[in-house]
């Protein structure tokens, strides 16, 4: 899956890096095969889905 010489971190590792970014479409492909969406959701290589985990709007800080 990954073309660089050292092996990529596994999906459960905290440090996979972006291989292809498509901010205009709202997603990035990581070197471990995961797809990360701008809404914080994820699609893992094995087909599992991680739902978006955004903070509720009432807990966001607003600049004055």
From TrEMBL:
<protein>
    <submittedName>
        <fullName>DUF5999 family protein</fullName>
    </submittedName>
</protein>
<dbReference type="InterPro" id="IPR046041">
    <property type="entry name" value="DUF5999"/>
</dbReference>
<dbReference type="Pfam" id="PF19462">
    <property type="entry name" value="DUF5999"/>
</dbReference>
């Amino acid at each position: 899956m990954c073309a660089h010489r050292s092996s990529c971190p596994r999906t459960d590792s905290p440090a996979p890096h972006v291989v292809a970014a498509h901010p205009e479409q709202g997603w990035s492909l990581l070197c471990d095969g995961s797809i990360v969406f701008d809404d914080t959701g994820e699609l893992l290589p094995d087909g599992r889905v991680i739902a978006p985990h955004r903070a509720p709007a009432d807990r966001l800080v607003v600049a004055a």
